[in-house]
């Protein structure tokens, strides 16, 4: 296994982002949704990782396994739910003022949460042990 400080984690992060964008992009309807949800997610995650690294004086490479786990977990959780995601995004577009509590929970949420938790657990184990 590569060391957590290995530069290979940057390659893994790039592959994770490419998978995320490839899976999320077809589920978006408008250009705004494509920019915010498909492109903004990985950038926000990277920004959070950078801020954490600066605040706690921790090398960015040490957090890349967790970053990859979150990005891949979200992408893997969406596999097979393109129609459901498009339907959800169309509903949000048609009813932008409706509170989140009134919207039925999409079926892919449970799959996504479970996948993210499993991959994050594995990443944290890896960070702790290597």
Short structural summary:
By secondary structure, the protein is mainly alpha-helical. Helix content is 74%, strand content 0%. The chain has helices spanning 8-24, 31-55, 60-78, 82-94, 108-129.
Q: What is the topology?
A:
Blueprint (H helix, E strand, L loop, with lengths): L7 H17 L6 H25 L4 H19 L3 H13 L13 H22 L1
Helix pairs in contact: 1-2, 1-3, 2-3, 3-5
Give a structural overview.
- The chain is an all-alpha fold and 130 residues long.
- It contains 5 helices and no strands.
- Helix 1 runs parallel beside helix 3.
- The longest helix is centred in the first third of the chain and has 25 residues.
- The chain is elongated, with a radius of gyration of 16 Å.
Main sheet specs: none
**SSE string:** HHHHH
Strand elements, count: 0
Q: What is the averaged pLDDT score?
A: 90
Unreliable stretches: none
Q: Tell me, briefly, the overall form.
A: elongated
Distance between the termini: 8 Å
Number of helices: 5
Strand content: under 5%
Rounded to an integer in angstroms, the radius of gyration calculated over CA atoms is 16 Å
Task: Give the helix/strand class.
Answer: mainly alpha
Q: Percent range for helical residues?
A: over 70%
